[in-house]
Amino acid sequence: MQVAFGVLGPVAAWDGVGDAVALKGPRHRAVLARLIVARRRVVPVARLVDDLWTDPPQDATGTVRTFVAALRRALEPERPPRTPARLLVTEGPGYALRADPGTVDAWRFEQTVTDTATLPPQQALGRLEEALGWWRGPAYADFTDEAWARAERSRLGELRLHAVERRAEARLALGRAADAVPDLDAHVAEHPWREDAWRLLALALYRTGRQGDALAVLRRARALLVEQLGLDPGPGLRHLETDILGQAPHLDPASSGAGDAAERVWARAATAYDRTVAAGARARLDSTVSLLRNLAVTGGGGLEAAREHRMAAIEAAEELGDAELTARVIGAYDVPAIWTRVDDPPQAAQVVAAAERTLAALRPDAHPAARARLLATIALESRGTRSARGPQAARQAEEIARRLDDPALLAFALNGLFMQTFHRTGLAAHRDAIGAELVTLSTRHGLATYEVLGHLIRLQARGALADFPGADGHAAAADLLADRHELPLVGVFTQWYAALRLAATGRAPAAEAAYRKAAARLDGAGMPGLERGLLPLALLCLRHGRPTPAEAQADLPIEAGIDRGLDENTDWGPYEPWARPFVLLSQDRRDAAAKALRLLPDPPRDLLLEALWCLTGRAAIAVGDRETMERARAELTSAAGELAGAGSGLLTLGPVAGHLDDLTSALRHSR
Distance between CA 645 and CA 543 in Å, rounded? Predict the structure, then answer.
């Protein structure tokens, strides 16, 4: 028999058929309540004595043991004599209630409220209404004056108020504003200091056509806060009042009607899936990865969540010992990737290791597509490293995909191949060809996200080749597709490209402002591998860039206004080694800059390869480091026809040829 416990009201217990368990007197219930407050932890007998009595009786310890014995008989009536208790157990110096989390209404309520934070409104509403129905009165209602219950009663009461407000939000999201008004009206009357409750009530009234009542509610809230607490309303209430007065379109429930319909469809499908597919079914892992793949392209929290749960899904698949399932789980995450620095290097290494283990474990007769997807994953996740395995895996994945004539698989493989085209400088034309094939392939077979990827690759490559009209066309095509298919991350890259465009045409002050605006969009985009240090690096490149011939003839002030904010306190992120010589030179510390330059590693093999070699060369010229100048010139020679850094689609230092001329001249004069 499994006993259920209730503390959301008077303390109670019920047996397996729902009948109340006789708990005897108030001190018996107090012992039970005190153990529930402890949440399965041991409460020493001495603590129970102190909590039960202000002035304990002479044999208080024995009395507590008597209470516990009576509770055990009530909670486990069928337990044979002299056998250990399984529910209310003795452990060390005291007792613990080993109740399952789902059998205590307070614990179940807390978990339900937490879970609804990530559910669509229809599901959240049903769960919240059910959970709020578990309340039979104030929490631990028998023990309102007991110090040991005070904190838990307060916490649960606050959680209940939060649940009431979450229920109202769900009703509003589902277009049920009229249903939300009565409960919210009672809620603010009982809890007048909760600003979010006032906000929700005003919004619900507005959406039921009662604009005057909505404004009156906001003014009532303001009066209470000012007169009783001496506080002005917070930004949520102030902004809502402004929006109501201006009849802002986003307040109109009709504007989200299609979204509400989508929510209802999602809720029904999710419910059907949960009901139909067994909880332990392996199909759930396949479905999970499909969901994560879609989540990743939303950016921000979605991308971060996808990364977090992806590894968990892989580990769960490996634990089942099914190599083909694991291959599907790993290979199904074919999220197009444009940036060549991974966001989470340790996780990328884990994914590569899991893919290699799975390749080795696959049976010889496994479908070649499974192998190709694992190989493409290895190529993608090992980008930016100097391992020979990445390029090898990329070539193998491409060969299998072409042999199978599988468009989606080939697009995935081409993405891996793109990520492995940074073993030397000057490969923009090669990447342009990959991008062109991706665009053609994706357009023909309806692979929208890979079509976007193809345009972004071509945007980068045409920029590197100084074909800005061509790059502009690919930026516009990517933005159009992103708007049509709700891909918000695309705008991050096209906005940075617009700033690069200004920099490449010599409009330095405008470029600086555009870079700062583009950098603000990176905050919260969920791409730490792109975000850290990129803005200061772009400004450093703007300062030290070489003008194009047209700019040189126009004598445009390339370096104007770029000095501020670039110093040793700047967060340069992964680019700090390449920035450090310039920071030291700005402080007239030439010897220290020369030492920093000697310690400089070779740039990573990624989209900023040419840019970092150009910075290395310029620093070497400044300190007269002949050896480093020769290395930089040798590395950059193959990119003589490109714009340095423009292949990233983010920043530029102007023509590589100009930097090569400067290096050659400096080497000639240093003899």
Answer: 14
Quote the crossing angle between the two packed helices 177-190 and 195-207, to the nearest 10°.
Answer: 150
What pLDDT digit, counting tens, does each position of 243-285 carry? 888 888 778 765 444 455 555 566 566 666 766 777 667 888 8
pTM for the whole thing?
0.63
Going by their DSSP bridges, the two strands 88-91 and 12-14 should be labelled as: unpaired
CATH pick for 175-276 out of 3.40.50.360, 3.30.450.40, 1.10.10.10, 1.25.40.10: 1.25.40.10
Give rounded-to-5 percent helix, strand, coil for the chain: 70, 5, 30
278-509 matches 175-276 in CATH topology: yes
Can you give the residue ranges of every domain in the chain? 1-170, 175-276, 278-509, 521-669
d(Cα 566, Cα 661) in Å, to the nearest integer? 27
The CATH topology of domain 278-509 is 1.25.40
For 79-114, what is each residue's pLDDT tens digit?
888 888 888 999 888 999 999 888 999 999 999 988
In 3D space, the residue among 487, 98, 155, 433 whose CA is nearest the CA of residue 293 turns out to be 487
| 210: region left, alpha or beta (phi > 0 left; psi from -120 to 50 alpha) | beta
**CATH architecture of the region 1-170:** Orthogonal Bundle (1.10)
Contact 156, 132 (CB under 8 A): no
Q: What is the pLDDT of residue 81?
A: 82
User: Using an 8 Å Cβ cutoff, are 327 and 363 in contact?
Assistant: no
